[in-house]
Amino acid sequence: MKVMVDLCIIPLGVGVSLSPYIAACKPILDQAGLNWELHAYGTIIEGEWDAVFKAIKACHETIHAMGAPRITTTLKVGTRTDREQSMTDKVTSVQHKW
Amino acid sequence: MKVMVDLCIIPLGVGVSLSPYIAACKPILDQAGLNWELHAYGTIIEGEWDAVFKAIKACHETIHAMGAPRITTTLKVGTRTDREQSMTDKVTSVQHKW
Amino acid sequence: MKVMVDLCIIPLGVGVSLSPYIAACKPILDQAGLNWELHAYGTIIEGEWDAVFKAIKACHETIHAMGAPRITTTLKVGTRTDREQSMTDKVTSVQHKW
Amino acid sequence: MKVMVDLCIIPLGVGVSLSPYIAACKPILDQAGLNWELHAYGTIIEGEWDAVFKAIKACHETIHAMGAPRITTTLKVGTRTDREQSMTDKVTSVQHKW
């Protein structure tokens, strides 16, 4: 089952500058061979369900290992059985109706 | 790694009455041996990371099998290494400050 | 327009204990005359759109005034024109299908 | 108070093709003079709190008027008092740590 996820990880107890923790997720996503794209309030990831959620778990583990005692993450998770739709497809599908 | 999740599954393409699909997740959570609690805009689930996300995947698969061609889910996912905190702890922790 | 909101406010830069900040929202919701219910990963609020979002803005302002330099909030926002549905209705609607 | 929002509007009861409804929000955001940027799982909007939430309310009203009997929206809402930070700042702040 393919999934598209919007991942927003918020480490708590480490002050207000979260970008070093977010940046530490990049090699995890890359090594998992996932397609992903950063935006201003999260990261869109697409891939097989198990691979995507294994990577998200590794992000939590890595950020805890960096010293964050608590993490709260918001995810949007999309699956569909009717057809495949990539990140780019979703954006252009809206733009064609503007 | 223990996790607390707030799960809100939205099947698309099946009209506006979503409760039969949400109800179909109950046996999945029960058979996984997870603690969970329904609220008006989702379900709080607590347990080990792998067991919780395996159950969420099974919810998506079940709801697709029931005929929903598309699902969009919103999750909040909390982990912490400083201490254990149950659903009840979190609620009473706020209530004690009222 | 009536709205049901699931509000989860996360103050950043104030350590890992967030409950004093969450508790400070209670009088705001009460004074606004809104129905609300705390759960383990947020607060469900129901009322008129403008009243609900005015209260949420006041929560952000209050938590900043308490010393939090940064806040990230996750909201689920439901509106419907087909019928009225309360917090209790939504829960029992699922429970009747178990 | 400035706010950055990640807006993901899901109309229910209108089938699986949501892009016409999402596209109808573009003129609302433009006429409100807000900065915004579409991504694959939502739209990032930045501006003054009242202007942003007035626009989001107008999106719900417009989508209901287009025939959607029910809408569920997921929002991430960020405010900060320590400094201003644009959509672009947030992305480059992470990219500089890669």
From TrEMBL, chains A, B, C, D:
Protein name per UniProt: MTH1187 family thiamine-binding protein
Family: Belongs to the UPF0045 family.
One Pfam assignment: Thiamine_BP
Domain Thiamine-binding protein: 5-95
Transmembrane segments annotated in the record for this chain: none
Region (Disordered): 79-98
Biased composition (Polar residues): 88-98
Domain of life the protein comes from: Bacteria
